[in-house]
Amino acid sequence: MSPVTHFFTGWVLANCARLERRDRALVMITCVIPDVDGFGLIPQLLTANSAHPLMWFSLYHHSLHTLLFAVVVTALVFAFSERKWLTASLAFSSFHLHLLEDVLGSRGPDGYQWPIPYLKPFSALEISWRGQWALNAWPNALITAVLILISLWLARRRGFSFMEIFSRRADRGLLAWLLERFPVRS
Known about the structure:
Blueprint lengths: L2 H12 L6 H12 L8 H6 L9 H5 L6 H14 L3 H22 L32 H21 L9 H14 L5
Helix pairs in contact: 1-2, 1-6, 1-7, 2-5, 2-6, 5-6
């Protein structure tokens, strides 16, 4: 699934508990971080027609989708969070929701199913699902739309939104817009 879907998945999960802003951000970031290896697409595209193309995306995408990386990221979340055990548990779950989403709906346009090398480097076991739908398939769009709607509902209800990750001012602006269009009834 797309990084946008992972972002909103992490955000919704972070709001399953009463966490402070930084802890919510850590849970959300943990749901997106496995795709940091996707930045290899930029040098691959820039060097595609060169004598020595860099195949970083093709070779390494999903290489961080492992239990080992999940443990490392969760340990970092534990170190930097306020509610350590709760936030780390949600972060570990968030990471694994990312993996589940990728197994369900990340098939490439050429039909290639991105396997998850979950136990790498300890085992060659790869997780995949034969029914994996394409990255641009309607289930991914529907899941993303539902997650965005839930995020907006949570924002109106809780008084803060996913925009707080980027800017408090943007967060206040989105909340003002939501409350203007959907006033709270007494």
